[in-house]
Amino acid sequence: MLQALPTDRGHPLRPSDFDTLTNGLDYAARCETGFNYYSARGELKSTLSFSELREQAIDMAKRLVPFAEKDARIGLCATTSPEFAILFFACQYAGLVPAPLPLPVTLGGRSSYERQLQRMADTGDFHAILTPSSMEAIISAAMNDHDTPVLTFEDIKDLPSGNDLRPHGPDELCYIQYSSGSSSSPKGVIGTQKSVTSNCKAIVQHGLKTNEQDRGACWLPMYHDMGLIGCMLAPMMSQMTADFLDPQDFTRRPITWLRLISDNRCTMTYAPTFGYELCVRRWRDDADLDLSSWRIAGIGGDMVRPEPLTEFSNLFGKMGFSEGAFVPSYGLAETTLAATFTPLGQGLKRHTIDMTRYERTNEAVEASDITSTDHSRTFVACGTVLPDHEVEIRDFDGQKLGEKKAGRIFLKGPSVSPGYFRNQQATEASFSPDGWLDTGDLGYWLDDQLIVTGRYKDLILWHGRNIWPQDLEWAAQAAAPHRCGRACAFSIGGAGDNKTIMLLLECRTRDENLLSEIHTAVSAAIRLEVGVPVQLQLVPRGSMIITSSGKLSRARVKEKFLGGGIIDLQAAEPLKVVTTDAG
Question: Which range of residues forms the domain containing residue 519?
Answer without folding.
Answer: 460-578
